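Team,

Forwarding the record for the chain on the shared tracking sheet. I've put the sequence and predicted structure together so nobody has to dig through attachments.
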Amino acid sequence: MSRPQQILRTLTTSHCIPEDPTGSPRSVAPSLTYSSSSSDEPEEPVRRRRASTKLISQSAADVQRLIGEPGTKLIEKCCGGGCCMAITKTDGLNYERISLPDNDAYRHFRLKVGGLIPTTLSSVPDAPISNTQLLPIKNATAIPSPADSAISMGEKDDSTDFTPHSIEAPIDTSVHPPNFVQPHPPYNVYSAKIFNARELTREGAEKRTYHFDLDVTDYPEESGVDFKVGGAIGIMAPNDETVVDELMDLLLIPKFIRDRPVLLKTGGGRWPTVWGAEEAREIITTRRDLLTWCTDIQSMAPTKPLLRLLAEHATEEDEKKLLMFLTSAEGQGIFCDMRTVTHSTINQLLHAFPSSKPPLADLLSHLPQLMPRFYSLSNDPHESCVPRAGCSRLIEIAVTVHEDSHWREGTRTGVGSGFFERQARKFIAAEKNGEKLDLRIPMFKGLMSNPLAKQFVSDGPMLLIGAGVGVAPFRGFVQRRLKNANCANKVWVLQGVRDSLLDELYSGEWGVHEDEVKKVVQSRKPGSGSGKYVQDEVRAQAKLVWDIINSVDGRVFVCGSSKGMGEGVEEALVDCAMAKGNLGREEAQKFWNLKKEVGQYIAETW
């Protein structure tokens, strides 16, 4: 299937090749003017060393020498789950030797236990209390739709309706979440058909990125909130079916009851809904649905209550002792390493401590809610009619696959991006075989209130700075802006990539002659000794940056990863203000903070 062609009324912009907007009126937002001594070429600012700065430590040994006590003493919460909230105790302890788990899942944690643990432990939490019950249902076959029937306990809340209701057709929860998984009540998750899917990156790219055209022609009206340029949609991505089955295998849940309706009773909170009311619930569902759509079994880091639960149900004595040690004050440092050194999953924990088989209801009380993943639109949703498809309305998104280390497979994909990749590969394989599959993406419109959508305006010059998939929403900006091309509505794009031959996204798909509005910066340009990052190009375009941000309705947008690119671009913008505004570093930082407050500098990073 060829990619749908969009009808864009674009005019030439050859007369709008970047020029200095020196004649543009100045912004009413807080701004600073040029210094008479400033020049076109940025000068390296003199960075004076603060007299109060003194290097006092370079290693853990230095820190221990300074604080005068062994171990690690941290006074702030640093990584959650009870980590770094207590002192690691090591003085005056007697130790015993235990046998450590002999499996790859445990070894992947790289815990420095050494087989010796204290015989007496302190600050061990009490056995956790379960907030969840899974009860059998008599005559389950008489229930019209186990995955969608729901009963609410407690006061009625206007924002959520959990009373029993009839539905026209049962929902297939193998492809769509049950009705009680609501994004923003009273609206439900919408099943968007994949109109087209393709891979944007080429073989050899460091990261894989896919493009999706989603058919939203029949999306229901929602209080006047429509798709917006730069807006983001929420995706209710399920856990991988193989991961869910593996978890139920580890918990020894018989296969014949995995899809059998059960009565879920909760003592309070929002779970298993997303943003439902804080209340007790009784919901008819299945074990598989709860693990597939409602529980994060992949993105969590171990918590002390979870490890205490595993210890409570461990039948092997040394495993129980080790788990108890990890929840104690004496095992504090090891516990922190367990949370921060590796990216673990509940399946890995159960493989690492194989004698622990906690009841599913208890485990569900200590695992986090599976939350929506958000993705920015990569097109102008108001110019998305596809005539050959009966003028279907499409929205477009780009998804980069996120990968983490895995103790057995080497790498694993994220929940959301992994789901998208599985759907894309099914679509592409079917298309090659001449088949047409009905593949769906569970999504919701949301409020379209993310910073990129809120601050987009039709007038004034714009500089769009992004790297990787961060440039995707800018494509919609350019499409919208250049429908009415004129020099008053200038737009420039600085796109950072590793290698333009492998991972430049949407090359030739911006709806205009790209050389007029976009410059690609390669960090790993083939045949060159050293690459160039997008923040380097920001510094090289210092005059353009300064002119745009000081123009009426001028805006600078930044989108991409906060690590590296986001931080580097912010530093480069400060350097531009110092070079062209004749400002000190602190003044330049205040300048950009003011621009951020009035909506002229918008950074959307993750």
